[in-house]
Structure formats: structure tokens, C-alpha cells
Specification:
The protein is mainly alpha-helical and 143 residues long. Helix content is 23%, strand content 0%.
């Protein structure tokens, strides 16, 4: 592994963020207005495609002794009402809608890049590394 000396350290460049790169926040609708109502009389847990019994157990709500049994049941009802907002796997992960927050744009300063040969991927794990990179691109974690 090669390290940069202190003399070659990258320092931030002071400047003004261009207007097109600024993150814009909007609320096209009141997000609280679309929340499902919460009943003071909680119903029993009904497993769904997203919130299964195993997943609910993994959250540890039912074993939480800090909450009363009634509070635990209310918490389970909140999760049941909003099950689509919880991601247990990368495939279930979503993104913030662009009409609420604009995508981040990172402006770059013109420079002469220095190039160093990349470390090779060992042949024994090359296929696994390629599979993981393709998966991250497919899930839009990486571009």
C-alpha cells in the first residue's frame, strides 16, 4: 500500500457552492397528513409480506421490558401501519423522492489527476467482487 506524504495532502479548496449544486428541500405535500390513523385500541399483530413474525422478533420490541405491554402493542401497530417504510434487506431499500430533496451534486475543481496502478483483484475472489459491485450498482447504492 502506498501512502501520500504530508506535503502531498489534499486540502479543501475554499469557494462558493454553485447554485445548481445546492440541495433544494421542498414539501409538495404534508407527510404527516398521509399517515394512517393510530387507534388507541391496538389490534393483534398480523404478519405481512414485509413485516413477518421473524422480522418483528428481530427488532426486539416484544421483549423490551422498558415499555409496558400496551406500549409494545402500540409500537407493533405503528410498524404494521408503516411496514412499507422499513427495509430489512438491500432490495427493500428505497430512496427519498426527488420532489422532496434534490439529488446531491458534488462539484469538482479542475485538477491534474495523478494515476497509480490499482491493486489487482486476486483471481480466487474476482467473480465475487464483480458480483458485489454489480449488485451495488443494481441497487443504486453506487453509480
Amino acid at each position: 500500500m502506498v501512502y501520500k506524504s504530508v506535503a502531498k495532502k489534499a486540502n479543501p479548496v475554499p469557494g462558493i457552492l454553485p447554485e445548481h449544486a445546492k440541495i433544494k428541500r421542498h414539501f409538495p405535500e404534508d407527510p404527516l397528513a398521509t399517515l394512517p390513523p393510530l387507534s388507541p385500541d391496538p389490534v393483534e399483530f398480523v404478519p405481512s409480506e414485509r413485516l413477518t413474525t421473524e422480522r418483528l422478533k428481530s427488532l426486539g420490541i416484544l421483549e423490551n421490558t422498558f415499555l409496558s405491554p400496551y406500549e409494545r402493542q402500540i409500537a407493533v401497530n405503528v410498524l404494521m401501519n408503516n411496514a412499507d417504510a422499513i427495509a430489512f434487506t438491500p432490495e427493500e431499500r428505497g430512496t427519498i423522492r426527488d420532489d422532496y430533496i434534490s439529488p446531491a451534486i458534488i462539484p469538482l475543481v479542475e485538477h491534474v489527476p495523478w494515476v497509480r496502478k490499482s491493486l489487482p483483484i486476486p483471481p480466487g475472489i474476482r467473480e465475487e467482487v464483480h458480483r458485489q459491485v454489480e449488485e451495488k450498482v443494481r441497487l443504486k447504492v453506487w453509480e
